[in-house]
Amino acid sequence: MMGRSRRLALLAEGRFTPLDAKTAVGVLRFRPDQVAAVVDATREGRTAESCVGAGGEIPVVADLDAAAERGADSLMIGVAPQGGGLPEDWRRMVRDAITRGWDVLSGLHVFLSDDPELAALAARHGARLIDARRPPTTREVAARRAAGLEALVVLTVGTDCNVGKMTTALALARGLEARGVSVAFVPTGQTGIFIADHGVAIDAVPSDFAAGAIERLVLEAASRADVVVVEGQGS
């Protein structure tokens, strides 16, 4: 979903905490090389590590001008607010990013690319609006095709959101890889999709087709790995 090597400004205005900024924290933990700065004027001058325990010395800055000075070339919305909408004060920063020609990456339930104003602005400035939660165009019903796989399939589960299912899955996958095991990670939420550059946000898929969407991902992963680690979802 990153699509290319980037220098991200992670938008977490007023909410750059371990619980609120789930997407930002995940990207800082697993793709820090892609991050130039975190945008949160209320924590300006601090480091990512001091705020959320990940990201090392990546700076927290007040605005996109400061992020640009540190090499940012794209904006990622690093918080998933309740309801998944775009707060009005963030909309101003999204417009600012687009006018700079920056791509904007979003995991919100509201798709930026469907917003007429933002889409027109992006077309004018050559920017892309990337919505990680947009579901697949094809809908499939699960057919137990994964039942006979030789690959070991591991699913991380939990009883709520933001309790560590994705983090555990990625840590397990990386640990197995370090031991020489052929492993593939299957992301099922927006943060995992940004980290792995593929996947399906399962909460955006109608329930009749959710199992089919994940079955396809598991089959694809098993074709190239001996162990498939699937990010579970719970809410």
From TrEMBL:
It comes from the Bacteria. Pfam families: DUF1611 (PF07755), DUF1611_N (PF17396). InterPro entries: DgcN-like, DgcN-like_C, DgcN-like_N, P-loop_NTPase. This is DUF1611 domain-containing protein. Coiled coil: none annotated. Residues 141-235 form the D-glutamate N-acetyltransferase-like C-terminal domain. PANTHER family: DUF1611 DOMAIN-CONTAINING PROTEIN, GLL3100 PROTEIN. Gene3D superfamilies: NAD(P)-binding Rossmann-like Domain, P-loop containing nucleotide triphosphate hydrolases.
